[in-house]
Amino acid sequence: MSQPRRLLVQRRRLAEWLDCVRGSRPQLDGVARADDGETFELRVALPGFEPGEIAVEIAPDHLVIDASAARERRVEGRGRLARQADVHLLLPFPEAVDCERAAARLRSGVLTIRARHLPHGPRVRVGP
Length: 128
Fold this sequence. Notes:
The chain is α+β, with helices and mostly antiparallel strands. Helix content is 16%, strand content 45%.
């Protein structure tokens, strides 16, 4: 695939991810989001990955998921079969979240990340 074509494909995929996370699409393959006003939850399908192969970085306004796995097995009469899988996602949060108390867990190939929204600052009255 040519470089310009590859960039167009990557740009389209990024736009789809952003649409999903921002809520303008109900669900994108492998990603689901929920927000009850107090807690933001994001579920990402990562089949075949183990917890030690996934790194999650949470900032108040975005989330980064890096996952890398290499599998190799020996097949009688065929030699070795190897497989490499890499995932890198950068997803924005719709509102600022408390990254210090966020939690992530991997269960049955689904990574679930939960974070509470940061409280809004006090309201200030504007005078004349």
